[in-house]
Write a structure and sequence with these properties.
The protein is mainly α and about 250 residues long. It is built from eleven helices and five strands, in the order αααβββααββαααααα. The longest helix is centred in the middle third of the chain and has 20 residues. It is rod-shaped and about 110 Å long.
């Protein structure tokens, strides 16, 4: 018969309400579902600590254990310890009798099975493989990564608005030495040439206009007549070299 506890008591992953528990004496983690809060074992602090200790202490891989010159095979989800050893693990409030009573409660709820072995007790966590398997953990991680990717791929409307605002704020500003007419003529010319007028282009054009010795109006007129997108002072100073596009 399938044990009832695992659906409430086992499954872990930090980002979706799970938890990774590291232990000084061993590495790794156990899976514990947040629904444990609804389980009777959670209502008693001593029981809850003891239950978590059991999940931590049982084997996560099969191994052979030597106890008093006798070899025992201990499977995944099992532990071979005396009741006194469990009392020590559970803490100061525990003794052999209390451990026995607690194990009886767990067995009644089909959470564990205990079996007396020579000089030890074999404890088996029911359905351990179903709820503590790495396959389930990998599946949880894959789902979490997929959800993260979907979140990143979904456009954020607020971010789009910020980008649009930034785009507007980067619009070129008319220099003080440009008349409104000169500015309008330059903007219209660049628009006709399908060359957006950036602030960098405006700054460069202003420098070249000043170097040419011509008025801003004449420089812009020269650009329009010759079909230039940009302007270089050397282009109007008798230099007949090929005029490259600028800005």
């Amino acid at each position: 018969m399938r044990a009832r506890y695992p659906s409430s008591l086992t499954m872990f992953s930090i980002r979706s309400g799970f938890f990774m528990h590291n232990v000084d004496s061993m590495s790794g983690w156990i899976k514990l579902h947040r629904k444990i809060k609804c389980h009777w074992v959670f209502q008693n602090a001593d029981y809850f600590k003891a239950w978590i200790s059991i999940l931590i202490e049982v084997n996560h891989t099969e191994k052979t254990v030597l106890i008093n010159s006798t070899l025992f095979n201990c499977s995944r989800g099992e532990s071979l310890k005396s009741l006194d050893s469990w009392a020590t693990i559970f803490g100061k409030k525990w003794d052999k009798s209390k451990v026995r009573r607690f194990f009886k409660l767990l067995e009644k709820d089909q959470m564990v099975v205990t079996k007396s072995e020579r000089k030890t007790t074999r404890l088996t966590v029911c359905n351990y493989e179903d709820y503590q398997s790495l396959a389930n953990a990998d599946e949880t991680i894959v789902k979490r990564k997929r959800n993260d990717s979907e979140t990143l791929a979904t456009p954020n409307k607020n971010e789009e608005k910020v980008k649009k605002v930034k785009k507007k704020t980067t619009k070129a500003i008319r220099p003080d030495n440009f008349s409104e007419k000169d500015w309008d003529d330059l903007v219209a010319h660049r628009k006709a040439k399908k060359a957006p007028l950036s602030q960098k282009a405006v700054d460069g054009l202003s420098r070249e206009f000043a170097k040419s010795g011509m008025s801003i109006s004449d420089c812009i007129g020269e650009m329009a007549i010759r079909g230039w997108t940009g302007f270089k002072a050397e282009w109007v100073s008798g230099n007949t070299a090929e005029k490259s596009e600028w800005a």
